[in-house]
Amino acid sequence: MYLSSIDRAPKDGADTALRPAFAAIGRNVLALGAVSLITDISAEMVTAVLPLYFVLILQMSPAAYGLMDGLYTGATALLRLVGGYVADLTLRRKAVAAAGYGISALAKLGLVAAGSSVGALGAVIVGDRTGKGLRSAPRDALISLSVPETALGRAFGLHRAMDSAGAFAGPLVALGLLSLIGAASPRAFDAIFITSFCIAALAVVVLLAFARDHRAARPTTRTVSPRAVGDLLRRRGVRRLAYAAGLLGLVTIGDGFVYLQLMHRQSVPAGWFPLFAVGTNLVYLLLAAPLGALADRIGRKAMLMCGYGMLFAVYVLLCSPLTGTAATVLTLCCYGTFYAATDGVLMALAGPVLPPELRTTGMALVQTVQALAYFGSSVAFGAAWSQWSAGPATAAAACAVLLAIALTAGALARPRVEEVTV
């Protein structure tokens, strides 16, 4: 296998590409997609209101919110490696994923118990992200092991589309509760957190009942060990993917920062804040599967670069003098397209470069680098907002995206001949 397979599926997969999408992808991907759909209803109910909760109810500064947002996205990143390694070592990827989903579900109740204590909220957020860190790589590895290599883009695209369907519905549920109880009332947020827990618990039940583990016999020529994990980073293809994930993560600011800027620019009432996430996730829902399939045809690297071009457009729009409904809709369309073109595509890029027995660990490695970069990005952007205000901070982020696109394109460029298996 050559590094060129990162960017282009083999031509002999044409017959697979002609099959009906669901037949090629299989029931296991659909089951895992259903779990993610339900989980994201729960998760996005919380994610859609956390910026509002921190800024409106707890009166946090942009710098303090940046720290919390960093905790939410990357503070437990190293646990991804732990979860990935344990899943590969035991060949129980489903069990590790189920543990992660369960921990995240219990954390929703912790948000109610934490009240207005910033320290307790930080601890609960770390617990929630611990669950996400444990489950993400085993789930993505199960997806990659459930389909042929030529269908990876479609498989991850369909999974992310189902995931984003939940992400679309979650903020609507939160919006309904805020409208019913009142956005300024802490009781509304407690109701959101408790409802979120109930939905997350349902996702765990669906995972245990319908998803299947991949229990192929372990190859005798390779072992899962700390040394084998270290050998992953000696592969040039894996190093380049990790470098790209970290570089692109550093220039991606949190959703909350984007939506807070839109709220201030458009003078949107606080109770309608979740609609920004609804708009983004609707575009993501509509485009994730088509763009995943397109990535299999035109090249996954090209799709990744186009996605970050959309992120650049989002930052430019936030810095521009354009206001009004049309500008807001355009910004959210670009933002949703960014997610649709990058989220599953990065894991589809990783699949062909990683050996099956270390597939989960390798994906966890890439995700860990990206999550740590997100943490640094959130903290840095929050500090820049406090120091310079939102406009200059976002302009600096836009310039950083252009530089990251150029460096990433160079890092993932195909050499003439380079093997990624040994």
UniProtKB/TrEMBL annotation:
InterPro entries: MFS, MFS_dom, MFS_trans_sf, Sugar_transporter_CS. Gene3D superfamilies: MFS general substrate transporter like domains (1.20.1250.20). It comes from Streptomyces lydicus. Keywords: Membrane, Transmembrane, Transmembrane helix. PROSITE patterns: MFS (PS50850), SUGAR_TRANSPORT_1 (PS00216). It is found in: Cell membrane. One of its GO terms (molecular function) is transmembrane transporter activity. Residues 28-418 form the Major facilitator superfamily (MFS) profile domain. This is MFS transporter. The keyword Transmembrane applies. The chain crosses the membrane at residues 29-58, 99-126, 164-185, 191-211, 241-260, 272-295, 302-323, 329-350, 371-388, 394-413. One of its GO terms (cellular component) is plasma membrane. Pfam families: MFS_1. It comes from the Bacteria. The keyword RNA-binding does not apply.
